[in-house]
Structures are given as C-alpha cells and as structure tokens.
Amino acid sequence: MPFAGSQSxxxxxxxxxxxxxxxxxxxxxxxxxxxxxxTPDAARIPEVVEPGLRVSLWVxxxxxxxxxxxxxELNIRKPDGTIVAKTQNAEWHSNDEGxxxxxxxxxxxxxxxxxxVEYTIHGKVRDQEVADKDSYxxxxx
Length: 141
Prior knowledge:
Layout: H1 7-11, E1 12-17, E2 22-27, E3 34-36, E4 44-45, E5 55-62, E6 69-77, E7 83-89, E8 91-96, E9 101-109, E10 116-125, E11 128-131, E12 136-139
Antiparallel strand pairs: 1-2, 1-11, 3-5, 4-5, 5-9, 6-7, 6-10, 8-9, 10-11, 10-12
C-alpha cells in the first residue's frame, strides 16, 4: 500500500488543474499528488488543544517528488463570532522511501479559549492543486 490511511478516503481528492481551468473529482491513480491528514502517520499534535499550546498538523503526501508544496487553510471562529482566515505553509519533514510518502508539518501556532478552528489540507505539484476531500476541526477548551 503506497500511502497510509483509508484508500477509499484518500483516493478521491478535489483537484484544480490550472491547465484545464476547472475543478473535478477524480481517482487517485490519475492524480500527480495525494494529501492526507488525521491518520496514525499524519496526526494533529496535540490531539486535545488547550489555550496556549502550540499546534502542529502533520500531513502526508504521495508520491515523493521534488517541487511539491503543502499548506493548510484555517478558519478560526472567535467566541464573539468573528472569523479569522489564515493560510499556513507546511514545511517538508521527511520521506518514507518504502511507502513513497513525504511528510510535512504545518505549525499553526497557539489559539485562545473558546476558539473553533476548522481547516483543510492542500497540496500542489507542477500545475495540479489537490485538497483532502475531508475538512477537520477542533475546539479550544
């Protein structure tokens, strides 16, 4: 298995090809890159987020290829209802040559009590952008 996690969850990703100028759903075998998160090999640390704790979002990508980039788009809902949008680039961390995976870390920083954070994982290689079809979130208690 080339990448960890659920193949059915990972195999279908939303892609946006600059060359085609449109978005479509397609199977992973047609993608130049697949990204995932919230799996044993690509987790949120810490799992339970408390005020003042630094949050790191691990992301996996397949296959290993130079020129890739990964980022996280976050929407932070403050207790007063305002929403702060933020994009956080991920740093490449390592490759797993056996699985042909790369691993990335997006360091999102700290959050305040009462924040609700929702985020999506994105990647790009050559002219193809990909996004994990799932979105994620957590409350800061």
